[in-house]
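Hello K.,

You asked for the raw outputs rather than the summary table, so here they are, unedited. I folded two proteins back to back in the same session to keep the settings identical. This is the first:
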Amino acid sequence: MNPFQRLGAKISNWWKGEPQDSGGKTTLNSPSFLERIGLKRKGKPTSEVTYFTCLKMLSETLAKMPIKYYQKTDKGIIEAEATDTSKLLSKRPNPFMTPTTFWNTVEINRNHYGNAYVYMRKKFDRKKFGGEIKTVDLWVMQSNCVQIVVDDAGIFAGVGRLWYVYTDPTSGRQYVFSTDEVMHFKTSFSFDGITGLPVQQILRDTVAGASESQAFMNNLYESGLTAKATLEYTGELNEKAKSALVKSFEEFGSGAKNTGKILPVPLGMKLTPLDIKLTDSQFFELKKYNALQIAGAFGVKPNQINDYSKSSYSNSEMQQLSFYVDTELFIIKQYEEEINFKMLPDEDADDGYYYKFNEKVLFRTDSKTQMEYLRNGVGGMIIKPNEARRKLDMEDAEGGDVLLANGSIVPLTMAGAAYLKGESEQENADEPEQPEEETEPDTEQPDTATEPDETDEAEDEDEQEGGE
């Protein structure tokens, strides 16, 4: 390590409060010094497994849903043609992040700090006559580096407006952005409607208690799953002898490395371990109860934190649907409202364009259920065959762009026509057929084949006279 690297590590350790690399010096913020004076720095909330699991579940759920660009037309809703702005949300928000990583980071900041901020870098695209303002890229601002300022004195030339002051954690430089340049996402718990409160602040004692229980388990493992013990002896020992005796017993009996080893006890002394059973203190029941409280505050269901004590296969499916309705639906709606208001021009919004998360990815099922769903959709004149094939990542087939219908399906106005037709046919079948009356041949009628008709003779006479 060269002198510059050693100096950099020394400054870094001093800033973090860690022991220096020269002489083992410590500062007032060093964990070792705080432990010596009876103070202990609390761990981060993310070190608690339930809190971390809830953050992971919510952030990954939002990140897995792609954003679609649609348009409302007279013929219904169609998927609109991609634009430069829509490509930022669906393909690449900035050169360093994919959409999945981008929205995952935004949602983690929102849940952990109570607020998430996205800076929209814009530029004026000049044209021959006028121009337009376009969004170039999107950047996530660390929530702990952003401060919301209300300009009530007109300092930023906007009395009564909100401004976002961002302090770069690397350079320390400050930037001031207006509300038109920042998308602000907050938690549902807010008293003023401007800033949200994080769950870690609301459940500070619960999260801290869960962290302490995990620290207790870690210490128990480090001690080799052995509790404290009492040493009985006859006589008196001075402080120096007591310290030496305790040190020797701890050397042979404490720690995971000494588990299972024989502990030598001097003659006349008796070692009695203090048997502390975790079951008697209901340690695991309390730990489980705290975990359910933290998960409930986030809106996460028990099966999502690996608690299947009261769940079955069908119950887990219903919990997934309940998680979407009770938790994710509010989050998705808030994101869609903010994105459509901040990133969509007014003229595009008037023409029916809008952004929407595709929440259907949350309900992907097995192949059998998916095929039944598509078959019923095609047979019920809801989707076209090619639309069903696209959902299966298959190419279009010839003649698959038309809706198919069963021949027995009729319009609503003709409902029951088949029954009416059947009744009329049944009535005709029930009526008895009248036999035809047989007419006897007239014996007095002259034979037309042998005797000429008087009218024919008259016609022949007329034709002869006319011919003359």
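The second followed immediately with the same parameters:
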Amino acid sequence: MIGGRWWGSVSLATLLCTLGAPAWGARHGGEQPGRLWVEATQRSVREQRSALSQVAQASLPAVVSITTRQASTSADAGGEPQKGIGSGLIIRSDGYILTSAHVIEGAEDITISVLSESGYPEEYPAEVVGEDERTDFALLKINAPRKLPVLKLSSASRVEVGDFVVVIGNPFGLTHSVTAGVVSAKGRTDVTPNGRDGDFDYMQVDASINPGNSGGPVLDVHGDVVAIANAVNVAGQGIGFAIPVDIAKAVLPHLQKYGRVRRGWMGVSVQDCSPDVIEAYGLANPKGVVVSEVMDGGPASRAGLQVGDVIEGLDSARVERAHKLRWQVASRGVGRSVVLRVRRGERPLKLKIKLEDIPSDTAPVAPILAGPAPAAHPDEEPATGGSGLPGEADGQASGKRVPSP
């Protein structure tokens, strides 16, 4: 579709330049500059399309299809266990696979389909090494008799709005489907698929993402993974969401070592410095985030942090948004000490806090899952685009919970 639009523009340019070219050539007796421009444009378009095709062809063998069989309590009307579909990517040649946690949620059996060297599907049972609901990532392992092709995990910082990306996955069970588009936006923090609470910082793309795509790679023009397909707005077209691969890279060591993510916690709630918050706390020119709650006996409380303090920095990094601070604290891990740069009124402070594990009585609750929506609306929140289970493709948001770092 994108190529079609470009070719249409080139055809029009070709027509205009051809109509105007003879007179110029007759007067100057040389080559027609319009023709040279058209040929250069056509060559550029062909090269761009060829690059995307090469990325897709090279990456296909490292993208897997995932089929799950749900627990017997999730049987359909006929009494058969429900099945789910999703995607994943091989990140280590010895069979480690990255996917979305909601793809395998509630699964009793997980089957991975890998392309053989001759291009035929090979199926392997998979075990769950670790999973994390808040970032919606899971690490799986299969035992294959050969070294498997892998994809390189890069960074979402490698692409900007308007850059081309390729998405590969298993939408509706259509294995190894390839779509292409551009990055539409970055840093979407107000997107909560199915009301799920989590550490999300979405990249928006206009490449098609559908149920079954979740867990599949979003690739840049070099064939490196910059994000993982995760959600889709079912009422819109060309509105898909992916989680930056940087988040996956931060949680993968935890998943492999502990089977879960051990998040750093300091026992506070924070808010962005919106006009309402600034007025409520009587702040003057704040630069950072405001502490709205300090939990008794927590690390921050013991360090002397107070409600109304403005956190301006964490270690050497500036703090500008609440969701960024929550992720920075969580990703530091348990046992790490951090230094907060704080302003209390006109007084600057530095507080050293040793991060702890989240107490079980304050751990995040399970995500809220919405049922099927009777009718979708363009303003509704997107649904997760991965398991292919009834209700998820038509899900809508049902609330948003802000976690404490």
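The chain has a mean pLDDT of 79.

Happy to rerun anything if the numbers look odd on your end.

Regards,
P.
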